[in-house]
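Batch job 17 of 40 flagged for manual review because the log was empty.
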Amino acid sequence: MTSAKTRANLLSAIPALDCRALQDLEALAGEAEPRELRRGEILVRQGEPSDALYFVLSGRFTVHLEGVVEPIAEIAQGQPIGEIGFFAGLPRTATVTALRDSRVLAITRERFRELSDSSPQLRDAVIVSLARRLSESVDAAAKAPASVRTVAVVSAGSSRPSSRFVDSLRDVFGSVSRAVFLTEKEIAERFAEASLDDPATSAWLNSLEAESDFVFYIADQTLTDWTRKCIRQADVVLLVASAGASVEPNACELFAFSVHRPSARRLVILHDARTQIATGTSSWLGPRDVFMHHHVALQDVADVQRLFRFLSGRAVGFVAGGGGALGSAHLGVYKAFRKAGADFDILGGTSVGAAMTAALAYGVDPERVDEGTHNIFVRSRAFRRLTLPRYGLIDHKAFDRALRTEYGDVLMEDLWIPLFAVSSNLSVTTRRGSIGVGWFGTPCVRRARYRVCCHRSSRKTARCWWTVRSWIISRWRR
């Protein structure tokens, strides 16, 4: 256990307390109780008595309100926790959960009152910190979620760790950001006499976040203590699969599923070379609830660069709206953007916009898409095949056949460029779908989470190139 003087030095790093005399901090640290929390452990729960004040020595915490899915704030090293209810004498106003393996100092109300009587400046310093926190959180409800900082690389199914993929990550992320890559061997050499759960180890790992843009934790192939540590430290888990390997989730993945919500999981499927389409994606997605999947060809770094843009919040999306005849207008706008040098990381849209972007994501040249549109609507007269008006006037089967004739029966999850589509029937959703199925009144081909992916890509992780009469259907909820 660390001494009161050591804890006082740690407290001096807290902005609100750095001007306090060391003897005051020693008194505070001497009365405080150190606590270690693993990722996912709850420090304070909303509605419970505010009987203690906490100071974060290392790690990171998320703040949650009942009835709100996403966290409303994060608390980092050097900040107090629970000060609102503590000083106001109110129950806890929110639930605070460890986002990392973290360490705090806890002091009870009685102890803090005694110290305040002897050192009034100490109480004032914490109240100043409270005022600063409140002023910074006025717009917290509208604030974008925190960006990804720590990433765990975990093998999926029976796949073996890919050194080629890790090397590509090093090259791409290291060339444009401050990226650190950690393995068990490196940690064992640095902390030869300390365990992975030792406070000194966790504190050092947490300190890397302040010095780096990305910290990558390269997990072992099996569920070792290091793999558990990697997963607990991560904001996002990359489940890395090798095409052709067994798809059954392994023990490492199951542990990741127990720690991280689907919104923090991404599936990366590795291929030796890029073909026209990938295959077998549905078998990997079936047993895994992930936020998004990425196909990566190891022949070059293009797909890893796209992954970087998604993780760093720089992905660019092209979203095309509905409107029947406007489909060809979308193609013109797309061609103009491409001519201007724009490169898109995700495509999608509604109705005819979804049909156009599906063909573009498939790799079809815009001129060929325009020709196919002419064949479907003019030559095949697909929209002039009427039917009994039970659900609509147009026979969608004729339209579906025309689409399949032009583009085949390719599954959208097998495309190299991520694609989403929203149809007029929002009560029926599924993860998989053929890009040769019409989007006019047919079931939506993504689950709700993938619509959320579209929404987030437009607001946070992507800049959206708007097309003629194009829009993003926003505020989707899980």
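Reviewer: the log was empty due to a logging misconfiguration, but the result itself is present. The CA atoms of residues 280 and 414 lie 7 Å apart. Unflagging and moving on to job 18.
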